[in-house]
Amino acid sequence: MIIVGELINASRKAVGEAIKQGDSDFIKKLAIDQTEAGATYIDVNAGIFVGKEGDYMEWLIKNIKEVTKLPISIDSPDPNVIERGIALNGEDAMINSISLEQKRLDTILPLIAGTDLKIVALCMDDEKMPETKEDRLKIADILINKLIQKGVKLENIYVDPLVQPISTDITYGKGFIDTVEAIMENYQGIHTICGLSNISFGLPERKFLNRNFAVMAISKGLDSLLIDPLDKKMMSNICAAETLIGRDNFNVQYLKAFRKKKLEV
Description:
One of its GO terms (biological process) is methylation. With 265 residues, the protein is an alpha/beta fold.
């Protein structure tokens, strides 16, 4: 499972304050903690700082890279901010994200065309948020093909079918995981990803729902998650799900987590 650690996001009050105060120790600790917890990428988002986002993005990346060798997920819709992030990271970075929205497509696609960058591809266009499996698959197919035509490797594409709250429509959960299954079956070698906390919006015991939804999605092929890797119960559920669906050869990762007392039951 590819884990994108979500904690260095300026929309989180403590992180936003640390950025404003130039508290590099706070940022570095978040990077270290996520690395030690099992993250694969460190997501970096400074989007609340309009006009200063690029400067803060560079500051964050420089501090993170002092304490971890993990690649960065550059989380911004602004092509200028993304370009500055790429300059600090090279082609091992992940770009979060592109979509079928024309403005975003036109500005982000030239940055990743022909490169080895990883790209999160949102199932979103200019018309509306997709509501059904069919809506999502239609957008995904067009977007995937546009990326491939521009020299983006299939294995570098991380499709996000977009999680929406079941408190709004009870079918959204099943629609999402059915889309994941279809994408993984139809495009061998591609990845699927999501930030899954939206599924529980408006409901009690959100973490409980999120963890169970993660297991359901993994069983349908989801292989990447944007989450808090310090959530030990979530990481334990992911570890168990990976083992149970046959992604953990000889149960090595599960047994390793058990021996290191990382399984929260």
